[in-house]
Amino acid sequence: MSPTPRAAGALALAALSALLLGPFVAAGGVLVVLGALVVDARAARRPPQARRAAPVVVARGRTAALRVTLSGAEATRARIRQAAPPGLTVSPPVTDGPLEAHLLATRRGRHLLPPAAVRVRGPLGLAAWDHTAGEEQEVRVFPDVPAARRLALAVRQGRFREPGTRTRGPLGLGTEFESIRDGLPDDDVRFVNWRATARLGRPMVNNLRVEREREVVCVLDCGRLMAAPVAESVTRLDAALDAATAVGLAADALGDRCGAVAFSDRVLRRLAPRRDGGEALVRACYDLEAEGVDSDPELAFRAVGGLKRALVLVLTDLVDAAAARALTGAVPVLARPHQVVVADVPDPALRAAIATAPGALDDVLAAAVAVEVERARTDAGRRERAAGAEVLDAPPGGLAAACVAAYVRAKARARL
After folding, report:
1. Average pLDDT for 83-101
2. Inter-residue contact 333 to 305 (CB < 8 Å)
3. pTM
């Protein structure tokens, strides 16, 4: 219980009345105010009937509704405050009456949302009592699943389009014969069925069935380099998990099996390829955090090497020369039985330092360092290509689409 500013003002007036009305009248006034304060505190002590509705699962970077509702006579005299742990933001955090707020998640993983605090004032406004609404609740923050689902839906419906290419339907992704249909003006000449065309006297085209039951394995680097930020509240590992989620859900949409291996200097998570593996990947890897150790890609590749031919998507960072050499040494062994794609996120701060005209000596030095780092990254990518891997270099916002495009290309060319 705590007195309100109104109670403090009433006591001050009662004390000042001693100058005009005498000490006895002032003492009586103080007693009256204290009695009213006690009565008001007893009324505010009754806990309100409160109910909190908070999401159990949210996506990083997405908002969700959070509500705290009150019922009873105390609801009109209540003020609600919802605190949030680091990684979650509640807006607005404080309101009079029912709380209608947005919960924004900026960091993946498990977070404990504390109970809401409800301060109830007495009918006279002299005393207030603090109560809690709800229990401590775990909130799981997943990668950006809504964006991944949109990419997967576009792939399934044949609306996924790479820059500079024409849109094709979902049957054009495979090589297994499905049926023959009449040709259209924008059909690829490679799919023309010349025998049927000659027999019927009009263009006929092969429909190709999407290959199913292929395998996709996302290899996630969780070493120290993946903790580097690449955008506001986004680390390299966040961007990598968004890309892995998009590829996994696209594989689910096309009937393929998806698995995952997360590693640092040890294997952190291992998910064998399975149907609906994209959903399983999200649940298994959403709370991964980068560890302060150097990664061992050879250890992770040994966990993948025993599988049948698959698309192996390696999400890592090529900025460190030693790490890139270790990856280059491990890729040839994996590239023989598998189609290997190495995806990397460039550092926007480095590229900004190169593109910005220097205004001082420090800017010149920063640009020189950035050029050297970018040269090392380019050399590492060249070595990975020479070792038999496809290398993707995409910004954080475009990494998921670039990885899905690589997966679609691999299916179209029957490389997995």
Report:
1. 91
2. yes
3. 0.79
Q: Comparing 45 with 283, which gets the higher pLDDT?
A: 283
| Segment 143-159 mean pLDDT | 90
Domains of the chain: 1-142 (2.60.40.10), 145-162+212-412 (3.40.50.410), 175-209 (no CATH)
The span from the CA of 314 to the CA of 302, in Å, is: 13
Alpha helices in 142-296 (DSSP H): 145-156, 194-200, 236-253, 277-285
What is the per-residue pLDDT across 253-279, written as a single tens digit (0 to 9) for each?
A: 988 999 999 999 999 999 999 999 999
DSSP code for 87: T
Question: Would you give the DSSP letter of residue 276?
Answer: T
Q: With contact defined as beta carbons under 8 Å apart, do 344 and 317 qualify?
A: yes
Beta strands in 308-413 (DSSP E): 311-315, 339-344, 390-393
In Å, how far are 84, 99, 229 from 232, measured between CA atoms? 19, 28, 7
pLDDT band at 372 (very low <50, low <70, confident <90, very high): confident
The residue type at 115: P
Is 387 in contact with 328 (CB distance < 8 Å)? yes
Give me the helix-helix angle, 399-412 and 145-156, nearest 10°.
Answer: 30
Question: How does strand 78-81 pair with strand 94-96?
Answer: antiparallel
Lowest average pLDDT, out of 33-37, 224-228, 343-347, 390-394, goes to 33-37
Residue among 404, 132, 389 nearest 246 (CA): 404
